[in-house]
Amino acid sequence: MASSDASTNIHGHGKAVDGKKKRVRCNYCEKEMSGFFRLKYHLGGVRGDVIPCEKVSEDVKELFRSKLQGGGRLCKEVRDLFQQDLPWKRNGCPNKNVSKKIRRQSSESSGSESGEYENTDSMSEDDLKEPAILPSKRIVSQSAVTGDPKEESLSKQNKKCIGRFFFETGIDFKVVNSPSFQRMINDTHCPGQTKYKIPSCQELKGWILKDEVKEMHEYVNKIRQSWANTGCSILLDGWIDEKGRSLVSFIVDCPQGPIYLRSSDVSASVDDINTLQLLLDRVIDEVGVENVVQIIAFSTIGWVGAVGKEFMDRCKTVFWTVNASHCIELMLDRIAMMGEIRATLEKAKTISKFIHGHATILNLLRDYTDGHGLIKPTKIRSAMPFVTLENIISEKKNLMAMFASSEWNTSTWSSRSEGKRVALLVGDSSFWKGAGMVVKIALPLVHVLCLINGDDKHHMGYIYETLDQVKETIKEECNSKKSQYMPFWKVIDEIWDGHLHSPLHAAGYFFNPSLFYSTDFQSDSEVTFGLLCCVVRMIQNQPIQDKILQQLDAYRHSKGAFGEGSTVQQRTKFSPAMWWFQYGGQYPELQRFVTRILSQTCVGASKYRLNRSLAEKLLTKGRDRIEQQRLNDLTFVHYNLQLQQQHSKLGLNYDIVADEIDPMDEWIVDDTPEIGSQNGDSASKELESAKGAVNGERPSFQVKEELR
Questions:
Q1: pLDDT tens-place string over residues 472-504
Q2: Residue ranges in 411-462 assigned as alpha helix (H)
Q3: Could you give the dihedral angle defined by the CA atoms of residues 575, 580, 581 and 586, in that order, rounded to the nearest 10 degrees?
Q4: What's the angle, vertex CA 137, arms to CA 134 and CA 141, rounded to 5?
Q5: Three-class SS of residue 531?
Q6: Predicted confidence (pLDDT) per residue in 667-682, tens digit
Q7: Residue 240 pairs with which residues in a beta bridge?
C-alpha cells in the first residue's frame, strides 16, 4: 500500500473479534489485543503498551507513529514509552515531587544506617503503611505486555517470583543474562505452555524490587503491631569482616517472627562506650522503648562486652542478656579443654585425620560403613567434636573390622608407624571407655543447643530449669561422685552466673505453670530477686506494680481462674505464654506483664545464620546516592526474606549436623603424606588388589577421586 493510500481509519487495519469490540485482531499479523486504541500502538511500533507488529508495512507504521507522536494529550506519554533506554527515575517518575517522595520513602524502606542518608527514626506510620505508588505509566512499561490481561498478569508474577529468588539468595542480578539460567527456567517450565518472561537487570533493580519493598513493608508492619502486646527483643549480630571493620546488624525478634532493622559500622567507636550506647539508644527509640524487653548480645568480650557491663545501669527499663546458644558453646569449649576430655578428643582426632586425610583409607572405611565417614560437621562449631566422637563410637565395630581385615593387613599402611598407631588406638579399650564418658558429659549440652536453636517456641520459661536438668544428668552419669561431676558443674555455674543468667530467666521459671505447680518447684532467693527485679524495671507505674504484686497471690495459691478445672488440666499442655493468654484474663495487669516475659527468646541472632556479605557491601562507601539507596532497599528485602524462611523452618526436625565440612578442618587435615604420591600409588593398588582377592575378583587399580 502506498503512503498516500494508507488509511488513517484504524478500523481499516483491524477487526473486532467480539460483539463488544473488546478484542481486536490485527489484519497484518493476526495478533489479538484489547481494543483499537492498543492497535494504533501495535501498528506504530510504539513499545511499552503492546508488542509492535512485525508484518505491517513501513508506510503504515510511520503513519500511525507520526499520528501518535504528532501532538495532543498523549504526545509526551508516547515519547516516554518509545524511549526505552531512559533511566528508571526518568521513565517512571516524570514528576519531580513524586520522584522525591518515592526516593524518601524508599530510603525509609530499609533500616541500614548510614550517615549520608535520612535517619529512619523519622519514619512515620503512614509512610510505612502507604509506600509511594508509581504512576500508571510506569506500570505499563514495567511488564512484558502481550495484550492479554491474564497473560500480562502471569508474566508479571513470573518475573516477581524470579526476582524474589534473586533478592533472597543475594545472587548477582547479571545472572539473568546467562543463557544457562534462561534455559534452566524455560526447560523446567511445563511443556506446551508459554515460556517464562525472564526479567532484565533493570526490571530487577526497578519495579520488581520496588514491589517487593512494598510487600515487605506490609509484612514488617504486621509484626510491628504485635510488639505492644508481646514486647520484643533486639538481637545484636556482630562480626569483624576481612577488612578489619567491626560491623553489627540489628534484628527485632518476637513470637510473630523476626525482622531485620539495620546494620552499622562501629569500627570508629569500639573504644567509645558513650557513642555505642547512643547507637543502642537510637535503635531502642526506633523500635519503641515501651516495646523492648531485652537486648541479646552475641558475645561477652570486645566492644559488646564492654557495653554490656554498663548498659543496665544506664538504661533502667531494658535488660541486657547474652545469647544462650553462645554461652552453652562456651561451656562446651571449656569442657573440651579439660585434661582427660582433651586427651580423648585428641585421640579421636588422630583416628579421623588419618582416615579422612587419605583417600584410600577413607574408601576402605566406607566399604564397612555403608558409605559413611567418621566426621559429623555441625552448624554450631563447638558441638562438632562431641557429635563426631559419638559417631566414631557408633562405628566402633566397623572400625575394628576394617583394621582386622586382610585388605588392611596386606597394605603398606599397616606397616607404617602412623597406621600401626591408629590401629592400636582403635583396639584400645581404654580409649573407648573414655570416649563413652566424654559423650555422656557433653551431649546433654549439645541437646540443649538443638532445642533452643531448632524450636519455634520461646524458651524463656524453660532455660532456668533446663540447665539444672543438664547438671543433674551429668551428676548421674558420674555415678553421683562429687569429685567427678563437680569440675563440670563448676564450668556450667561460672558461665551461668557470669554471663548467661538474667532476672528474666528466673521470672520465666516462676511463671511457667508446668513447673511452678509441680512438686519439685523451688523458689529460692535467686528466683524471688529475679521476679521483683522484672516488676521494678518493666513496670514504671507504681499503682500497676502494686496491682501485679496483689494479683500474684492468686497465682501462687491457685485462686480464681488459676484454680479452675480446665486451667489446671492445660498447665502442661499449653506453652506458658499461651496458657497465660488463655487463662490470665481475670488479672489483666499480671497477664500482660507475664506475657511480655514469656514471649521473649533466649537465643540471639546466631539462630538465624544470616549471610553477612550484603551488609558488608552496604556499609562500604563509594557509591552514588541512587545506587546506595537501591542497595539499601535490596538489603532490607534480602535479610527479611531470609529471616522469614529461617523462622518458618523452626521446629521442623532440626538437625545440628551440617551438610558440608570445611576440607581444611583440623579433624581432617593430616600432615602425613599420601603414600601413593611417593610410590606410584602403591598403597591404593595394594588395598584394591586385596579387596579383589577377598571377593574373588580381578584386582582393580582404579582409585576414587573423592577425598571425603
A1: 999 999 999 999 999 999 999 999 999 999 999
A2: 417-426, 429-454
A3: 160
A4: 100
A5: helix
A6: 887 655 544 444 434 4
A7: 246
Three-state SS annotation for 274-320:
HHHHHHHHHHHHHHCCCCEEEEEECCCCHHHHHHHHHHHHHCCCCEE
The H or E element that residue 325 is part of is helix 324-336
Please give the mean pLDDT across all residues of the chain: 81
**Collapsing DSSP states into helix, strand and coil, what is residue 180?**
helix
Compute the average pLDDT of residues 643-672.
78
Say if residue 266's pLDDT is above 90.
yes
- The H or E element that residue 240 is part of is strand 232-240
Backbone CA torsion sign across 310, 312, 315, 316:
negative
pLDDT-derived band of residue 697, with 50, 70 and 90 as boundaries? Answer: very low
Distance CA 463, CA 430 (A): 35
The span from the CA of 111 to the CA of 123, in Å, is 10
* DSSP 3-state of 236: strand
- φ, ψ dihedrals at 262, nearest 5°: -170, 170
Rg (CA), the chain: 33
Angle between helices 384-394 and 396-403 (to 10 degrees): 60
Average pLDDT over residues 67-82: 48
What is d(CA 486, CA 597) in angstroms, rounded to the nearest whole number?
A: 32
Tell me whether residue 399 is exposed, middle or buried, using C-beta atoms within 10 angstroms of its C-beta: 0 to 12, 13 to 18, 19 or more: buried
% of the chain with per-residue pLDDT over 70? 79
Name residues whose C-beta falls within 8 Å of residue 441's C-beta, 6 or more positions apart in sequence. 335, 341, 474, 477, 478, 488
Across 464-576, the runs of DSSP E, i.e. the strands, are: none
Is pLDDT of 656 > 90?
Answer: no
Grid cell for residue 54: 512485525
The DSSP code for 252 is E
The set of residues, in sequence order, having a beta carbon less than 8 Å from that of 346 and lying 6+ positions away, is none
Q: Cell numbers of 441, please?
A: 558429659
DSSP helix/strand/coil, 232: strand
What span, in angstroms and rounded, lies between the C-alpha atoms of 287 and 300?
A: 24
Whole-angstrom distance, CA of residue 71 vs CA of residue 140: 21
Output the CA–CA distances (angstroms, integers) from residue 226 to 122, 400, 586, 646, 648, in the order listed.
21, 58, 21, 20, 18
Cell readout for 585 is 484474663
Is residue 230 within 8 A of residue 596, CB to CB? The reply is yes
DSSP string, 463-494: HHHHHHHHHHHHHHHTTT-HHHHHHHHHHHHH
The answer for residues whose C-beta is within 8 angstroms of residue 125's C-beta and 6 or more apart is none
Between CA 234 and CA 158 the distance in angstroms is 36
Single-letter code of the amino acid located at 339: G
